[in-house]
Amino acid sequence: QVQLVESGGGLVQAGGSLRLSCAASGRTVSRYAMGWFRQAPGKEREPVAAISWSGGSTYYADSVRGRCTISRDNAKNTVYLQVNSLKPEDTAVYYCAALQGHRSRYYPNPDEYDYWGQGTQVTVSS
Q: Which of 25, 86, 104, 117 could form a disulfide with 124 if both were Cys (CB 3.0 to 4.6 A apart)?
């Protein structure tokens, strides 16, 4: 079983930056594909970014491409999401997810993931 704990969310002004972290425990996720997703009130959960086990393959949603970087440190069992130039429409609960198995590519579909964190709130004020 894998436990995922997100951190780094908070209240930030538009134009600011945040670095979200997702720490995994219970099992190494170094071979797993990982993803970041978000859900705003009244909206469906949507992909933000995803990364292969090696970090060599990444995906970004159109809404964050150019403002966002997903990365991972397999030695620390941790995945990161750096988001710059934050906008009010980025306000949401951000979730980290893990897809078990040896994954050489990214997976943007949330339905494919096996493990989820509890989420961290990101609020961007205008």
A: 86
